[in-house]
Amino acid sequence: RDLNRRYDTPMSDARRDRMRRRFQQELRALQEVPFDDLGRDGRIDWLLLENHVRRELHALSEEQRRDRELQSLLPFAPDIVALAEARRDLQDIDAEKVAAIVDGIARSTWSIHASVQRGDFNSTPPPLRERAARQLSDLRRSMSNWFRYRDGYDPQFSWWVRTPHQDADRAIESLGKALRAPSRGESNVDRTLIGDPVGLDAL
Prior knowledge:
By secondary structure, the chain is mainly alpha-helical. It is 69% helix and 0% strand.
């Protein structure tokens, strides 16, 4: 739980790497336990814990795979993640350089928005578009938290970053709406039922 609170940025490779190291460490510790010397209850606990750790490791790999599927729709995501993680690590910033990064996020987002509006992503499966929209909402929240952390008390930051941040925020909001808008031929689709496949369909 503590790690999840510290590494709370969506689509973060750093979070996945840290969690993966933790679970691998737990797995190594389990493998050092003399299983044959355990009693019946101890063996059950060992098997349950090992199964849990392996499931968590698999979930991290699956999460990474699913995030990579969104790269064409969210190419700016790594920049948002980097800003949020720099704040988490209390890194010093150059306001002018950060403003350029945020401006780049806005430009990239508006570009993808235009592509979606043109129908360039009409062949993208609805579950993928919906997943991108959900991740986009989380990324928008992360960037907003990052901005509010310095806005106001750091005048230079506010002067350089406020306007590009407003533009980026509008772009992200607009893209989220465009991703959830029905594509051609989807006018009668109940979008509340759209989601990623589960069970055998996910294999």
